[in-house]
Each structure stands twice: as structure tokens, then as C-alpha cells.
Amino acid sequence: MATCLSYCATANGVELFNHYGSNSRLIRFSSRNTSSKLFLTRTSHFPTAKRCFHVKNTLSEPKHKVQDPITQEGAESNQSSFAPDAASIASSIKYHAEFTPLFSPERFELPKAFFATAQSVRDSLLINWNATYDIYEKTNMKQAYYLSMEFLQGRALLNAIGNLELTGAYAEALKKLGHNLENVASQEPDAALGNGGLGRLASCFLDSLATLNYPAWGYGLRYKYGLFKQRITKDGQEEVAEDWLEIGSPWEIVRNDVSYPIKFYGKVTTGSDGKRYWIGGEDIKAVGYDVPIPGYKTKTTINLRLWSTHVPSADFDLSAFNSGEHTKACEAQVNAEKICYILYPGDESEEGKILRLKQQYTLCSASLQDIIARFERRSGDRTKWEEFPEKVAVQMNDTHPTLCIPELMRVLIDLKGLSWKEAWNITKRTVAYTNHTVLPEALEKWSHELMQTLLPRHVEIIEAIDEELVHEIVSKYGTLDLNKLEEKLTTMRILENFDLPSSVSDLFTKPEIPVEDDTETVEVHDKVEASDKVVTDDEEDETGKKTSAKTEEAAEKDIDKKTTLKPEPSVIPPKKVRMANLCVVGGHAVNGVAEIHSEIVKEDVFNDFYQLWPEKFQNKTNGVTPRRWIRFCNPPLSSIITKWIGTEDWVLKTEKLAELQKFADNEDLQTEWREAKRSNKIKVVSFLKEKTGYSVVPDAMFDIQVKRIHEYKRQLLNIFGIVYRYKKMKEMIAAERKTNFVPRVCIFGGKAFATYVQAKRIVKFITDVGATINHDPEIGDLLKVVFVPDYNVSVAELLIPASDLSQHISTAGMEASGTSNMKFAMNGCIQIGTLDGANVEIREEVGEENFFLFGAQAHEIAGLRKERADGKFVPDENFEEVKEFVRSGAFGSYNYDDLMGSLEGNEGFGQADYFLVGKDFPSYIECQEKVDEAYRDQKRWTKMSILNTAGSYKFSSDRTIHEYAKEIWNIEPVELP
């Protein structure tokens, strides 16, 4: 006879009802708290019979009366749920500690408490997730899919219970169980699924999509080791593998029924039916792992589906293993699994390039197969492919998912039987592209040869798209001005360094000059030009060997002869595929991520495409979620905002933050504001001591630059400014120092890519400067320099609320947007920066007088670089002093010649100060003096801080998502009943 087990939560524990035939037996789990440990005891045993185990959430459904099976008394409950109070939550946590175990049963310590707590939250999320998914399935509405190589989520526990409005209840429940919510939450590792702003933006977008009830999902890869965990040693940055999945993640749900085949290599053949078939090669499968993403104050819970790569068990070579060839036996599995080992594996080697391209294709192919399967299932027996763009919107977050375009074409043509014209029309209406940079390294180009080897069918499709583009360009610009046409084709083609298709190549045919052989006869006349060389006794040839001198007479005889010269062999440029161009051609919308960036995209990066298709180009200024970046990470400030505005509605309607402006001069508000800031700074003081060993004081200005380490972001300018400050301090007596300088704690954080040598030199330099200054007794607390290791979202949530000044000092025109600048502004931090990225819009919103501006502007940069190349640049004396001070060994014995060399000379790769550190240095120092002056007047500074928060209302990701939904995806919000 079947047995059915169900459980419900009570104030005293978890009760399991064992329904066995006509009898019901109660299995009660009680708890007693002793020395902060939880002990669970069984009062009955399960009979050895077949059981089904029904588990319902205790937190999500409305109350109604049920009868207790033991007392027969009515209880305010649902058969499967209780109100989300502390008692029922505690019971749910105890249940998971016992029945979803990942740790031994003897102890209820912090790691176990975290997992049990997270699993209890996940119950609520799954019920809402299933309800959300069910609505989408039944209504068959248009859904957006956000494809990104990165999702930098941060810790999920506090965000999830905050969105569910259960923070207080969970805090009380854990207190009953002997733990503090903050300590339990600290056990969660950051999910290692991203690196910087690109990934954090994607996660903010998912939060806003769920909060605003938009039907959308995210797709990414489930990296086992992430980018890397950063350690700071005496040698600078050291990289070790991330361990975020070492003991598992309580949030993800493996979907073993969601699996798709992925193919690499092989060949393309034409079948008897005339169709193209991709056969042979290497086959793997991608398996889905789902992470529920809850909205704030809504039941809507959307999904982030991450792909993990495997091979079927049949691909394990059992015979080879038993023969002792263990490595060979596991080769297929290793090749599949390593695709999802590392985010952005080094690509200096051919193997690294192959692995990166495999990653990108896996993301695109698995996601599109999943999307298409969903479209077919929702369509039932009336699948109409022309309706696909009316049900599906695919957003490519930067160029990494570009292969969506040829992959969608391949599936539609090869597998679904559509014509080229039909498939191309569907693809162009479905896919859209977000550009995140003007930097060449982010405008990806792939070797045509490598891509043809790995993805032969996709190369055929890309070549056909390129040919269609060529014809469109010729049609647009005509053949009257062949030079202009050739220039357009060279710039706009997807295929770089390729001959033109035969259908248009005749336009550029030039008369051939007959050549008899492959040698060139040059007649040398009776004069030797000044540039010609007659070798003398004192000269050396190109090999460095001495040569004998010729007499003038002999030289004259030689020049009367005809000399036969072999032509220099021509260098054949490599053939490449321009992924960004393919995105623009294949997508129906192209957007930049800040006003100035979108203008640069139109006027410079893709100007030729903009002239051809102006209707495609849009701006979507980035935004960040106010839930994570004020409400949850900065409770003291959130309470003050709510108090003075009179409502907590600002969390969803950030335009209400602007109401703070009318209170900016209020002394009571200013006092509360400063107290909130100081309480956040005290937390950071403890954190820095724990992580770095350095002691700092909370009353100093906290001056913070935290972001990816890159030359264009100019951490080098920041640390040079600090060196200048330190040098000037050392030249003064103690009294002068205190008069002239405001105490500062200069905090850096961020990762340098493992193979980016110059960025790693910058990290090393910052840590060396810090080691010297922080141990200088003459300076004391007047100046501290701290590099925070392994910067991530959780560290940001601690540092940003404590910041007084933040630095966004990239070379103008090189930062697409930035999102950390928005987070700092939301938290009342005043910014020093250039007119770059979203700085431009932030300055407009917070007020020019509340933003410290310096540096050259974007339209000046090209001219300044030319000035340098022409040798006309005159370096600033103070800047040269700083470089000499560094070279003097003031910060240790490490040789910084290569670092300094990047700032010198007038031309050459890695030289000539390409990012204009020296040019902007005088302006930067002058601006920092204004910062000191403003900070001395705390009333003025606090007002500036309040106005920064008030002016940050525009930078909510909710606003950004509304614009994407309306102007690119054409989707409508759907609230769950």
C-alpha cells in the first residue's frame, strides 16, 4: 500500500504526517536551542513501504482553517502553508537542516544554517517561479531573452528575502535558532559568473525585469571556477581558482530534462535533397541549471538558466580505461567539461582561442535551441515561423553572443526547412545588440580559419550574409565613385581581408600589366641618391658583420650596370570575421549605454552603418537596481530617505528621490546623514583590518576607486596623484601637513586580467605605494592607501555606502557608461571624474557644483594624441617629478621602468601615454585640491552628498528596462494573480 508523507510547520517544529492506509501517524520534529546549536529528534520511524513525499511551501499561500490531525482543533492555516512569520520560517529552516542535508547532523553551525535558510527561501521562490512560468506558458505572450557571458549576481540570500519582504521574519527566526542573519548571510560565496560592469548590469536587469513583471529570462554559462580569486602578495596580484561551487549552490536547480546537443568541427555536405548537412565532428550536450530571480513586492520570479557541458556516458572509453589508458578514456568528458571551467580563458594560445569560441557557441546554440523548443511547444500544432519575432526577443549583451545570428539561421534553414529569405527576415526581426565599448579589444574579431574549422556551417552562413551586405552597400552608394564605394566596403564588410564576391569584383577590375617573370629589372643610372648606401670600413651590415669598402671607381662601375632585384614577398593579412559588424547587420536594434557613448557609436564606431540604417541606432543609458544598491546594502541611509520623503515608494519609483532636494539644507537631515555615513565607515574599518591588516580611521575622507584594472580606467592617474600628495607631505613639517591636507583613506579594488601585464604592474605599484605610506610614522592617519583583494559584489555592497569620494577618471570617450558611478551617486558619494560615459548624465542630474570635473574632453583626444606623435607635448613639471620620485626607489626595489615607459615617448605600442595620464595630471591635481577644500566644510559636503542621492533617480535599471521593453523588445508586463 502506498504511503504519503506531507509536512507542515508549527511553532514547535516540523510535523510530518505519515498517511498509511486508513491510519495517520504523526512524526514530530522538535527543537531545543543549546549553545547556539540545533538538535533534531525523531519520535517515530518510517514503515518500510513505498512512499510519496509531498512538500508544500509554508510561506506563500493565504491562511484558512484546517483541523490538526492530533488535537482535532482548528488552526489558522492552510493544509500546506502557514503565514510567513518567524515561527513557521524557523520550522522550515529546521526541516531543511534535517531533510535536505549537505552537512552532518550533529551540529547546526553557520555553513549549515546558511544552506538550510537558503533552501527554505528557495521553496518560496520555486512556487512563485512555477506560477510565473505557468502564466507565460498558458498565455503564450512575447518573451525577452537576455544572453550574456557574465552575470555578476553577488550574494542572493539577503536580496531574495528582501524582495520577498521577509527580512525581519528571517532575522527573528534565525535568532530563535541561535544565529544572526547577517552572520548566516556572510557564509554565502559570491557566484563566480562575471567580472565587472557587464555582468553586474545583466544581473541588475534581471532584478528589474522580475520587479516590473516583464516576461523575460536570462541565459549564461555555469562557470565552475569563474574568472579567478585574487590574492595580493608582495609580488602583486596572484590568481587562484574560484571555489564558489565547491560545496554546491543552494539556489540552482539542475534540469536533467533540459539538455541540448552541441556540435563542433565536422564538415558540411549537400544531401540528395539539395540541403546542406553538418555532419561528423565532436558532439557534447549542454544541461540547464536554473536560478530563480525574484522581483520586489511581486510574485513574479523569473529565471536565469545557466548551461553546463557534458558528454553522454557512452562516450567514456571503458576499454581504454581498463587497458590503463585512463587519460584517453576520459578525454571526451574533459574536453566537454572544460568549456565551462573558466570565464574568459587566456587566448594567447590557439587552444585558448578555440576554447573561447566554444564557450560563445555553446551559450548561443543551447539557448536558441531552448527558446525554439519553447516556441514550438507553446504554439502547439500550429507553429508559424513568421510569428517567431512576435513571440521572441533575443538581446545580445555585447559581441560574445554574436553567433546567435548564424545559429538561428542554421536552425531555421537546415532543421526547420525555411528558405534563406524567410530565415533572414525572421532573424533580423528577432535579434538586437547592445554595444558596451569603443575599445578595439572588445570589438571582437575571430580568425576565419579557426572559425571555419570549428563551425564550418556557420562560416558558410556568415559568408552569405556578408555577400548580401556587399550588394546592399553597392545598391546604396552606386558605382559612380568607386573610391568611396571601396572605402565603404572595406569598413563595413563582416569579412575582413577577403576578396570581393565575384558578382561585384568586376567593378574594381584594373588593367593588368604583363610581367614576364617574378623578378624586377631596375636600371640604375649614373647618379647615386643621398639615401643610397656605400658601405665603408667603419660600417656594419644588417647582420652586424664588418664589410670591406669598395673603391669609388668600383662603385661607379657597379652603378652603370643593370641590377636584377627580387621583389619583397608580400605579407598576406589574416582573414577575420568582424563580430560587431555581424551584430549590426543581423540585429534590428543597436544601442549604446550612455548618451555620449551612443553618439560615439553613431558618429565614429559604426558611422557607416548609421548612415545606411539610422533607424537601428538607439541609446539606453545603463541603470542599477535601487533594491540591492540602496535599500538592502545601506539600511541606515534607506531609513533616512524613507523618513524624510514620507514613503518607501522610492524603492520602486526612484523619481521620488528628487524630493530630498528640498531638505538638503536642513541641519537635522544633515546630522542624520553624516551619522549614517559614519556607521557605514566603521564597518569598513573593521573589514579593512581583517582583509589587509591596515588600520584606518573612520573620520578621514574615504576616497574609493573600485573597478576592473585597465589602463583606460586610469588607476595609474589616481596612484600618481597619491604619490604627488605624499611627496608634498614629506616636504612639509607636521603642522603644515595638517593645514594643507585633509586626512584620506584611498581605497582601490579590482582585478587585472591574468595575462594583462601592464594592469598587473599597476596593481603591484599601488600595493608598494601603500606599503610605504602606511608604515610612515610621519604621515600617520593623514594618508592611507589600501588595495582590497578579490573585489566583488559583496565587497562593493560594503564599500559603496561608506564612500565619501569616488573616482571615475577614465580617458574621455573610452568608458561606454559605467555603472559603479551610479551606485556611488545613489549612496550620496560625490564623484571626481572626466566627461566620459554616464558621468556626463550624472553631472547633469546632480548639478555641476556637486561633481568634481577635470580633464580633456572626448572631442579633444584625437588631437592631443596627434600633438604627442608630432613631438609637441610639453610634460607637466610635477608629473615628471612624480616619475623621478618613483624611479628613486621610494617605494621599494622593484623595477618600474616598463610602467614608467608606457608614459614616455611620442609613438609606439605601449608608449606615448596613449591614455593621456600625463596630459590630464595637472588638471587632476588642481581638482583634488578643490575636493580637499570642499571636504573641510562638512555642511557644504553633506549637502552635496544629499543632492547626489537626490539626483540619482534617473539611474535606476527599472527605467532602463522600461525603455528596452517598449522600444526594442515590444513586450508587456504581466502580473501574477
Description:
By secondary structure, this protein is an alpha/beta fold. It is built from 36 helices and 31 strands. A 9-stranded mixed sheet has the order 12-15-16-9-8-17-18-24-25, with helices on both faces. A 6-stranded parallel sheet has the order 28-27-26-29-30-31, with helices on both faces. The chain has a 5-stranded mixed sheet with strand order 4-3-2-1-5.
Write the layout of secondary structure elements.
Layout: E1 3-10, E2 13-20, E3 23-34, E4 37-41, E5 51-54, E6 64-67, E7 74-77, H1 86-99, H2 110-139, E8 143-147, H3 157-163, H4 167-176, H5 181-185, H6 197-211, E9 216-221, E10 229-233, E11 236-240, E12 253-264, E13 267-270, E14 276-279, E15 282-294, E16 301-310, H7 318-322, H8 326-329, H9 331-337, H10 350-379, H11 388-391, E17 392-397, H12 404-415, H13 420-430, E18 431-434, E19 445-447, H14 448-454, H15 456-477, H16 482-492, E20 495-496, H17 502-505, E21 520-523, H18 552-559, E22 562-565, E23 576-578, H19 579-586, E24 590-592, H20 595-605, H21 607-612, E25 617-619, H22 626-632, H23 635-645, H24 667-692, E26 701-706, H25 715-730, H26 734-740, E27 744-749, H27 757-774, E28 783-788, H28 793-799, E29 805-808, H29 820-826, E30 830-833, H30 839-846, E31 851-853, H31 861-869, H32 877-887, H33 897-901, H34 917-936, H35 938-951, H36 957-969
Parallel strand pairs: 1-5, 8-9, 8-17, 9-16, 17-18, 18-24, 24-25, 26-27, 26-29, 27-28, 29-30, 30-31
Antiparallel strand pairs: 1-2, 2-3, 3-4, 6-7, 10-11, 12-15, 13-14, 15-16, 19-23, 20-23, 21-22
Helix pairs in contact: 1-2, 1-4, 6-36, 10-12, 12-13, 12-15, 14-15, 15-16, 23-24, 24-35, 25-27, 25-32, 25-34
